[in-house]
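Before the break, one more example. Copy the sequence into your notebook; we will annotate it together after we see the structure.
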Amino acid sequence: MKLMLGTKDNPSLLIELEQEMSPTHFDFWVVNGAWQGVFTNGYITVLDCPSGDFSSLEKTEILCDNPDRLRGDYDTVFANFDNVDYVAPVPKRVVFDDMDDDIPF
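Here is what the structure looks like once it is written out:
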């Protein structure tokens, strides 16, 4: 499950959860980031960051939990975040044609 975190209407973190979440406390990893974290009552504790662990002083909110708006790559999600009507395309399954195999053996 993906969530967008930020302050007021300013998105700042696109995160991924691996387990069910409580709206006040959950563990996450940052999409397109090199760290993990813990969200506790609006405050973020940064873990496994190259510059070290620390806690934020600014309160953060869950701005969006709609999977239709948060699906896709990082840049597209941020670029379309202000458009409340945006719906990301559903990924399509790739089907390979076995008869079109041109790899020599």
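The first strand starts at residue 2 and ends at 7. The mean pLDDT is 87. Try to locate both features in your own notes.
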